[in-house]
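STRUCTURE:
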């Protein structure tokens, strides 16, 4: 989602560059927001993803069992069957 414009119209590249240079020249410290790093190993992230998929698959199986009779042949039921038939550990 794009940010809202500061002025009435979007700034040109030259205006944006001039604003950046003026901010650097004023001596105010630049605020940089860094996203937190994920320090888990690939194996741990894989195990966590498989665990989440297995949990979701259980929820979808319960949803499939609770589906009313008139929706048993619907596209939703087919999708739920396909999800329940997957083996995420393979």
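SEQUENCE:
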């Amino acid at each position: 989602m794009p940010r809202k414009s500061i002025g009435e119209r979007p700034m040109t590249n030259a205006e944006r560059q001039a604003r950046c240079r003026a901010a650097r020249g004023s001596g105010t410290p630049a605020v940089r927001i860094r996203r937190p790093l994920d320090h888990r190993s690939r194996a741990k992230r894989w195990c966590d993803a498989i665990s989440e998929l297995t949990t979701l698959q259980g929820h979808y199986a319960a949803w499939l069992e609770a589906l009313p009779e008139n929706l048993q042949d619907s596209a939703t039921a087919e999708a739920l069957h396909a999800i329940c038939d997957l083996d995420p550990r393979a």
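REMARK: The chain has one domain: 13-85.
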